[in-house]
């Protein structure tokens, strides 16, 4: 797969970006977000965009989290890109809100991205979610119970960001497998950081990633692509009904 051509195709088909926009690449230091950063940096002239690198330190893994931040800052400097970082005590937030840590972290990230857009630092924030993430999300929601909205999975574009009326989240890698991104990084001899919490079997998503999907792949090697295709179809259905219902409501 020609990853660069694939990313350009997805960005243009989904109308993710416009020439002249400032794009913040959310980079954790993991393989997916590092690959996204390198790809967009190589394509910025083609797309006519400006980049900055955004990193949120969740302060959950002590020295390892600080090392992730330092790694991303060094990578941004090597690429000649502006680096923006914030630190949030996600564990304390979760305790105060009586929420789980994953949800508190997700909310903290959304607030960070919203601040970047609300202050004019970015027009859009690019995230490194992959086709594998889409498949895992779909299975997590099926296990917990869901409807059509849940089956739509991770949206390729979310606009505007909640609460600020501007900005957008984009996911240019949503049709790309993780393995392709790691091969890309290995070809570029680019290192990345590994988050060992992704191996914790106590987390539902990790068990689905490490145990359930490999077993399903034994039955159907294309299971990840097929689950992602189901999410895409559900997203189209949901979009149709949302527009149809709003139009009928206004008419009536």
Question: Keyphrases for this structure?
Answer:
252 residues; alpha/beta; 6-stranded mixed sheet; 6 strands; globular
Q: Determine the fraction of residues in helical runs and give it as a percent range.
A: 55-70%
- Report the average pLDDT across residues: 95
How would a crystallographer describe the biggest sheet?
A: 6 strands, mixed
Rg (C-alpha, Å): 18 Å
Strand order of the largest sheet: 3-2-1-4-6-5
Q: What class would the helix/strand composition place it in?
A: alpha/beta
Distinct helical segment count: 10
The total count of strands amounts to 6
Measured between the Cα atoms of the first and last residue, the distance is 49 Å
Low-confidence stretches: none
Instruction: Give the helices and strands as they follow along the chain.
Output: HEHEHEHHEHHEEHHH
Shape: globular
- Estimate the strand proportion: 5-15%
Provide a descriptive summary of the structure in words.
- The protein has 252 residues and is α/β, with parallel strands linked by helices.
- The protein has ten helices and six strands.
- A six-stranded mixed β-sheet has the order 3-2-1-4-6-5, sandwiched between helices.
- β2 (50-57), α3 and β3 (82-87) form a beta-alpha-beta unit.
- The chain starts with a helix and ends with a helix.
- 32% of the residues are buried.
- The mean pLDDT is 95.
What is the secondary structure topology, with strand pairs?
Layout: H1 3-13, E1 22-26, H2 31-47, E2 50-57, H3 63-79, E3 82-87, H4 90-97, H5 101-118, E4 124-126, H6 131-144, H7 148-151, E5 157-158, E6 168-170, H8 178-187, H9 204-219, H10 223-251
Parallel strand pairs: 1-2, 1-4, 2-3, 4-6
Antiparallel strand pairs: 5-6
Helix pairs in contact: 1-2, 2-8, 4-5, 6-9, 6-10
